[in-house]
Amino acid sequence: MSSSSLKTRIAIVGGGMGGLALAVALSKLKAADHLEVNIYESASKLIEVGAGISFWPRGWEIMRNMGLEASLLSKLFPAGHKPLPEELRLLFSVRKGNQPQGTPILDKSGGTIPFHRADVQAVLLDHISPSIQCHLSHRLVNSEEKEDGVVLKFTNGATATCDLLIGADGIHSSVRRSLLSELKPTSDGEAARRALPLWTGVYVYRYMIDAEALRREYPDHPALQKMMIYCGKNKMMTAYPIREGKFINAAPMVSHPECAGTYLNDHGVHEATTDDLMSCFDNWEDEVRALAKYAVQPSRWAIQYVDPMDSYISSSGHVILLGDSAHAAPPYFANGAGLAIESAYVLAALIDKAAKATNGKVDVSRISKAYNAIRQPYCNAAAANCRALGSLYQLTIPGFEQYCDGEDIPEEKIAELSKLMSQGWEWTETSVMPELERALAML
Ligand SMILES: Cc1cc2nc3c(=O)[nH]c(=O)nc-3n(C[C@H](O)[C@H](O)[C@H](O)COP(=O)(O)OP(=O)(O)OC[C@H]3O[C@@H](n4cnc5c(N)ncnc54)[C@H](O)[C@@H]3O)c2cc1C
Q: Any idea where the FAD-binding domain is (predicted)?
């Protein structure tokens, strides 16, 4: 028997935030010697698309536990200035911005720590053990459970076999397609369709703003200092500073409710122009119009979501979904990557406990069941709450139908919005550790 057959063979498909976080978490395990881990990524290069990514205390706690805090902070302050993470948390404010004179809705402290995505990716890559191989240009076509394990087939003709397949392959997941056809057998065409993500009806414009240019015209623009969320009917604008305040990451969203729940005919990403963007925010307050006016190379993304899944694991437990592949939701909480990182941490801890108990090859089905029991309800609920928060931001919740875009909303209704939004954000103050303990107790 070769030494590797004593090891648990783990294949991570997808080298995005979730897949890389899992690779880091597995690298740090005491039981790492008992594991043979490979990452298979479709891209020929690891590039993070989009600009900003923010971490809430739940996700940050995990980054700290994985020993990444110092490296992440050094990306924020390369010159050596070392503030405490608590000092870096941006305040965030929500305003009704869809009229020339906006109205404050909510101010919240102790919020998020914002990063450039490329910086987070670089830190994750730096902390992956050299024993974990990343196979680029490996696009998974399908996976099938056989006697010797799960067999993976890639478009480049390569194959691989593993004991545990983790589908961290994002919203268009191939692993989800295989898993759904196994859980609910049907024709290949029907399974492929069921696995497709649906369109929320929302477009997000993604771009950065040169903070200096904005500051020259609006020296006190609040997005230079904190996270701003501006609300309007079926529209909103989010903006916050990144990279030592040199840039503002902006993500305005525009909804077409009649298109919600439909399928897209293309990949959903297109170039946009500043004029396009400006026209969406005519008659909004100046603060918002400025965030549109200074857009640099905006692109327009159709935001899709995954229909809630009853299970994130195959019936044998040898296949697991993690991150967007399982529960992609619109980014109203800016926490999709945070959820993927939480799941990665919980899964790695389960693998560690199981590997230590058996001193080698682990019973993957027990790990998967514990993972699913804890992560499926939490992540599905997070995705549902996220959609509900979107309706609050876009003033489409019941009781607000009568207010047209740009109209005043009475004070008591603003207070109601503020309370509901504040409740919606309560999760940010919680920790994943109690859930981790519950998961570990199941083994
Ligand atoms: C506008 C916007 C703003 C956001 N802001 C935030 C934020 O501030 N904070 C936050 O936490 N989250 C945010 N999110 C959500 C976050 O980006 C995602 O939830 C997160 O990237 C999901 O990580 P993942 O690893 O599951 O998937 P992904 O990051 O999508 O990674 C999937 C990887 O799998 C690869 N892949 C795909 N198919 C295959 C295949 N068949 N074979 C092999 N490899 C494959 C892809 O190339 C990719 O590298 C935002 C999202 C949007 C749209």
A: 7-382
Return the ∠ at Cα 246 (arms to 240 and 247), rounded to 5°. 45
CATH fold label, 85-115+198-306+394-427: D-Amino Acid Oxidase; Chain A, domain 2 (3.30.9)
How would residue 80 be classed by pLDDT, with cut points 50, 70 and 90? low
**Total residues belonging to the chain:** 443
Closest ligand 1 atom to Cα of 339: 11
**From-to residues of CATH 3.50.50.60 in the chain:** 3-58+120-196+309-388
Q: What is the pLDDT of residue 81?
A: 65
Contact in structure between 382 and 424 (CB atoms under 8 Å): no
Q: How far is the CA of 54 from the centre of ligand 1 (A)?
A: 13
232 lines ligand 1 (CB under 6 A): no
pLDDT band at residue 245, thresholds of 50, 70 and 90? confident
pLDDT for residue 2 is more than 60: no
pLDDT digits (tens, 9 = 90+) for 116-160: 899 999 999 999 999 999 999 999 999 999 999 999 999 999 999
Decide: 17 in ligand 1 pocket, CB within 6 A.
Answer: yes
Pairing of strands 8-13, 35-40: parallel
**CA 103/CA 242 separation, integer angstroms:** 25
